Every structure is written in C-alpha cells, then in structure tokens.
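Here is one chain, start to finish.
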Amino acid sequence: MNMKSFVAGLMMAASMLAVSNVAMADEQITLGRTILLGGGDHGAKIPLLVCRKTDAIRVKAERDLHLEKIKVTFNNGQTKTIHFYRDLKKNKYTDWRKFAYPRCVKKLEVYGNSDGSKAGVKVLGRKK
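Its structure:
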C-alpha cells in the first residue's frame, strides 16, 4: 500500500510540472478572420462574440494583400488604431504589435486591399 501511494504521488507531481510548463508559454489564439476585397475605404469588420484578452496582435495573410491598418475596439469602448502600411505575401505574418498591458478585445476592423479579387486575413492574439 505504501509503494502504491508513493508512485501515485510521484505521478501527480510529474503531471503538475508538465502542466505548469505549458501554461507559462505564450499561446497564439485566433481573434478572427475576414476577407478584404479589391478596393474600398471601408474596413472589414470582425465582431467577436466574447471578449478575448490579449497583450498583442499580428496578422497572417491567406493571399497576397496590402495591409493598411487595424482598428481595435476594447471591451470598455476605447479604440486603438495600429498602422501597418505593408504588402504581405501569401502565408506571411506581420510582427507582433503590443498593447501596454493585456486588454479585452471586442471588435476588429481591418483596412487594406487585395492584389486579386479577394484576400483572406487572419488576426491573431497572444495569450500569456
């Protein structure tokens, strides 16, 4: 009986160590996806059903596009505009753009143009 409890305790300790290492790593989450059309001055809106807490965002292009900016709306109604002004090739990422502290994102508006008829965009967040 004593040996069984020792092995059970050892397995429990090992599993707790493995879980804590995973929780400490930065996790990349998808905030939303949208499609940019060939031209236009209106942003492609990505409403989030629930508030997603993140400390930074980045963008992945699913087709070639020109990304201008992203307008982020937080849970308290404040907004922040992040300017990119760059061309992105298919399956390429922008760099991480950090907020001052982890914030709850409620809505995103992506401004840009696709090189073809339409281009998919994925907005990612970083969860600490």
